[in-house]
Amino acid sequence: MTGSVVAVSRGPRHKFSKSPEMRIRLLAGLGVEGDAHMGETVKHRSRVRVDPTQPNLRQVHLVHAELHAELKAAGFKVHPGDIGENITTRGIDLLGLPTGTVLRIGATAVLRITGLRNPCTQLDGFQQGLTAAVLDRDAEGRIVRKAGVMSVVLEGGEVIPGDPIKVELPLEPHLPLAPV
């Protein structure tokens, strides 16, 4: 399975949206250089309050461009970086990948998917009704979180729009993504 990078974004301060960039640099074990969420331990303020020594499983946030298209069709104005993602992808079913999937991006960057982003009410602060729009239910009634996936950086490198993304599934048994 392969896809591509549509856009890259980062935010040096803890704000909801991130600014689109021409390129970002991923740093092994840390995240996006210059991003407020970069670090070995948690940087999300709510998680820091609980335990600031937890490992940072949310170094890089990825969202599929197909979600942006779905949200636009529902009347929302959403662009890359608007809902806090660092990398916007196309052509990969991010939400359907198992935990531990490796993404090889561009020439050198390597990420490992750690889990799902749990949509929060900050989405409604950005645009009313957005939280509900990124939540759904499957055929069995279970909640489906559509706000992207979180990852850690295994190998650093520069990422630019247009970079190819190669997906490498982990060994079986595959574990479904859960919120991190």
TrEMBL record:
Signal peptide per UniProt: none
Residue span(s) of domain MOSC: 19-168
Entry protein name: MOSC domain-containing protein
Organism for this UniProt entry: Dongia sedimenti
Taxon lineage: Bacteria, Pseudomonadati, Pseudomonadota, Alphaproteobacteria, Rhodospirillales
